[in-house]
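@here heads up, posting the sequence + SMILES for the zinc ion run so it's all in one place. Ping me if the SMILES looks off, I pulled it from an old spreadsheet.
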Amino acid sequence: MVELPVSLPLALQNDGNLEIVFLGTGTAFARRLFQTNFLIIKGDVHVLVDFGMTGPQALQAVGLGAQDICTILPTHSHADHIGGLEYLSLLNRYMAVPAGAPKLKMIITDDYRPVLWDMSLRGGLEYNEENAEGKSLSFDDLYDSYAPAYVSNNPRKVFSIDYHGIKLELFGTNHIPGEAGTPNDAFITYGLLIDDRVFYSGDTKFDRELIDMYADRSEVMFHDASLTPNQVHAWIETLRSLPEDVRKKMYLVHTQDNVTDEDTALFAGLTKQGIRYIFPSV
Ligand SMILES: [Zn+2]
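bot reply: prediction finished. Complex structure tokens:
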């Protein structure tokens, strides 16, 4: 993995290598860091993974605006991951599309689509106008959706999609409620394996089974880490119990504002905003 500083504005195209840029690396409550949302860029294709309440400002910090975003992949319905979606969607429909841009594309499983629409997005998006059939706006009026294919449910739900050359494997994580025994009992939350080489834990409690499932397939693992014991996120102390070969490929993310490089001394490092993480073709 090569790390380069972001130059402004961040280019949403590259020479074809897989590139990951974190717009934010903080928790839901972070004030100094932006919330953990990131871009996957490869060739002419980009996917924005999550867009929380700090999303618009975080995009501005890399010289972009929401109208520049073509594709979104929401991992779960907490506001630090979808709190900017209404903004993104309305800006697309009322400003970008009339100016000639395509409709926003969303990568979302068939399981999660009705949950996201009915329980979070409808309230602000359904009633703006009537669609061409004279009905309230629906999910399909706002988004072209791409559903990852179901792969398996053992030991957790896994889906996959090849999105214009970016291979995405979505897996269920055990995040909320904290008492859920397995990812399949929990609120819908996903993590990702990107191009069969980069792991992103999504929001999750410490889950050794998940780490064991993906460690060998991952060159780099970006993992949720809380500096303090937490019911719904992985406490850094539990991550310190992992074997050294796993810790040495693990970059911590979704951290509190006061995280230091010292906290991450036993790991590959701390995930940083303003860095292009580039994975050259092998
Ligand atoms: Zn969450």
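MO: The longest strand covers residues 18-24.
MO: One more: The pocket of zinc ion is lined by residues 76, 78, 175, 203 (CB under 6 Å).
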